[in-house]
Amino acid sequence: MPAIKIPLPGFEDLDEIIVSETMIKRRVRRLGAEIAAAFGGEEITVVAIINGALFFAADLLREIRRPVRLDCIRVSSYRNETRAVGKPEIVHSMTIDIANRHVLLIDDILDTGKTLSAVVPLIKKLNPASVKTCVLLDKKGRREVDFDADFVGFQIPDKFVVGYGLDFAERYRNLPCIGVLKPHLQNPPEWR
């Protein structure tokens, strides 16, 4: 008997899907190979910015065929808004030593550039051997700070997206694709 595919709650809240689940899986596999090649045989210390990069980092780590250590930091930028609010705030920092280690900083989306441009200097103060950045999505149309990631999954237009770890008011992270949230749902007062 064939499986019946039931859409996840939340799909009906999307205006459009801009990156499908299949596209994500394919690109993550290729990114893993690119990252492994770039670091050679070196062990990689991955620092994931959570909660947004949680899904992406987990899938990407499975595709990096090298020894990997993992730590996470938490940065707050959006606070239930559709645009970054003020300066990114580091809510929880790393716990492992990265001195003389090759670090790969993973984030879900590079839009204004404020988060990565704030976190990278903090990591560099801890004397790693190198620091490279990887983002699932790059939204160049929103850039306020001059910053480019070393590894990018997809370039996307300046639209508010959710899914595959990206949220609005902590919702929609579990969607397996990346889609544009319908405009009337982007600021409902009952979610604040």
Please tell me about this protein's structure.
It is a single chain. This protein has three helices and nine strands. The chain is of the alpha/beta class and 192 residues long. It has a domain of 134 residues: Rossmann fold. The strands form two sheets. Strands 4-3-2-5-6-7 form a six-stranded mixed sheet, sandwiched between helices. A three-stranded antiparallel sheet has the order 1-9-8, with helices on one face. Helix 1 packs across helix 2. It starts with 13 loop residues before the first strand and ends in an 11-residue tail after the last strand.
Question: Major sheet: size, sense and barrel closure?
Answer: 6 strands, mixed
- Estimate the global geometry from the Cα principal axes: globular
Please write the CATH class name of the domain at 23-156. Answer: Alpha Beta
Amino-to-carboxy terminus distance: 44 Å
Total helical segments: 3
Order of helices and strands: EHEHEEEHEEEE
Detail the topology: elements first, then pairings:
Blueprint: E1 14-19, H1 21-39, E2 44-50, H2 54-63, E3 68-76, E4 89-92, E5 102-110, H3 114-124, E6 130-138, E7 151-155, E8 161-162, E9 178-181
Parallel strand pairs: 2-3, 2-5, 5-6, 6-7
Antiparallel strand pairs: 1-9, 3-4, 8-9
Structure summary:
This protein is of the alpha/beta class and about 190 residues long. The chain has a domain at about 25-155: Rossmann fold (3-Layer(aba) Sandwich), CATH 3.40.50.
